[in-house]
Automatic annotation (TrEMBL):
Molecular function terms, GO-annotated: DNA-binding transcription factor activity; transcription cis-regulatory region binding
Keywords: DNA-binding, Transcription, Transcription regulation
UniProt protein name: TetR/AcrR family transcriptional regulator
Organism name: Solirubrobacter ginsenosidimutans
Start and end residues of each HTH tetR-type domain: 13-73
Pfam families tied to this protein: TetR_C_14 (PF17754), TetR_N (PF00440)
DNA-binding region range list: 36-55
Length: 200
């Protein structure tokens, strides 16, 4: 039974990868707007309904890796040891999850360009980043001993996400530079959290 389940999971993973590869090839050739879900399904040799078993929308394919990344961040923040803040957990997650390469992959470059050119993709990206902010807000609230919807956790989480976005832009593709930039922001973020804890 385990062998059958393992084979099934590998097949699902291959299908998902084929959908992503087909989608990005079409986006590169035709552009995002001119590519339909039916086009992607045909290129991946699957039925359109099979596409929706893997992705809820065409936009979701563009950000195919975000669910896994944010899921690992959520686990890192929630399972952090005593004495480690949510901000420090974010840094540890970045260190572990960020590739060491210095050049973005062609798909990452294409995604960046499409987000600049397509308002609906930019909006979808902002929606996903809001999920990142929520993960941090809950963790920071725990650090401060406050409810997640309190003003102070929201402010610190928003500052952390703003730093994350700036680093993604300024240090894109360069892990060493990105981590150095984030370490600079940590001074500010840790100071803010410490000041808020002192007032509590």
């Amino acid at each position: 039974m385990k062998a059958i389940a393992g084979h099934r999971e590998r097949k699902k993973q291959r299908t998902r990868e084929q959908i992503v590869e087909s989608a990005f090839a079409l986006f590169r050739e035709r552009g995002f707007q001119a590519t339909t879900v039916a086009d992607i399904a045909a290129a991946a040799d699957i039925a359109p309904r099979t596409f929706f078993a893997y992705f809820p929308s065409k936009e979701a394919v563009v950000f195919y890796d975000f669910d896994g990344l944010f899921g690992s961040l959520k686990e890192t923040v929630e399972s952090r040891p005593d004495g480690e803040t949510a901000i420090d957990a974010l840094r540890r997650w970045l260190e572990l999850s960020m590739p060491a390469h210095h050049d973005e992959s062609p798909d990452e470059q294409l995604r960046r360009r499409m987000c600049l050119d397509e308002p609906q993709l930019a909006a979808h990206q902002q929606h996903l980043i809001a999920g990142l902010e929520e993960i941090l807000r809950v963790g920071i609230a725990r650090d401060l001993g406050q409810p997640p919807d309190a003003l102070q956790p929201r402010l610190v989480a928003a500052a952390a996400v703003a730093a994350f976005k700036a680093i993604e832009h300024d240090g894109a593709g360069d892990k060493t530079k990105s981590m150095a930039l984030f370490d600079e922001t940590l001074v500010f973020l840790r100071g803010g959290v410490a000041a808020l804890q002192a007032r509590a």
